[in-house]
Design goal:
Length: about 200
């Protein structure tokens, strides 16, 4: 199981490479505490990373933004995971770093998100949660929240990438597949996991 190291050792698995600010849906009465906590974690992760990314792009352009995603996103996720006692990360159908590829459960949810988008749902409203049980009987609450492709994403993930950005991406991510997105596409998803008693 992809989360086994986290569940056993506290290691963090991070997915995906960029984000647009997702809205936090209103929590209906009676919604589980796990979903409320997951939505709050996504909002905190998204806001922290987006702020760092916007500052870097303002100061040095998209190439500096790549450095934030490459160097800081993992630390932000690690810090949040420790603080919140849950795995916090990102993943996508088209990853920049192959280590961040979705596991089987995440892949199914991402495909479900794409199907729901095709049926007319907007990307920023897509979320899914479930309790899964691994081979050892450990129950884990899992949650995913879609990341829409925003304008800020396009210089690194769009169809026309500037040469300096292309060079930096090639140097850092030789197996990059996270390109060709248009605004409003499903860029990926935040993914969270929390072992249950």
């Amino acid at each position: 199981m992809r989360y086994a190291p986290f569940l056993a050792l506290g290691a963090i698995l991070i997915g995906g490479t960029t984000l647009a600010q997702p809205p936090v849906p209103e929590v209906p009465p009676g919604l589980s505490a796990e979903i409320k906590a997951s939505r709050a974690a996504v909002q905190q992760f998204s806001t922290t990373l987006k702020d760092a990314l916007q500052t870097a792009i303002k100061n040095g352009g998209p190439v500096e933004g790549i450095a934030v995603c490459h160097d800081k996103a993992g630390q932000i996720a690690t810090d949040l995971s420790t603080q919140l006692n849950m795995m916090v990360g990102r993943t996508s159908l088209k990853v920049r770093n192959p280590e961040n590829a979705p596991d089987t459960w995440e892949l199914a949810v991402l495909k479900q998100f794409e199907a729901r988008k095709t049926q007319g749902e907007t990307v920023d409203t897509l979320e899914f949660s479930a309790v899964v049980t691994d081979d050892q009987g450990q129950k884990t609450f899992r949650y995913m929240k879609a990341i829409p492709t925003g304008t800020m994403c396009l210089s690194c993930h769009g169809t026309s990438i500037p040469p300096d950005v292309e060079a930096k991406l090639t140097a850092l991510y030789p197996k990059d597949t996270a390109r060709g997105f248009k605004e409003g596409d499903l860029r990926g998803a935040f993914t969270l996991a929390k072992p249950l008693p």
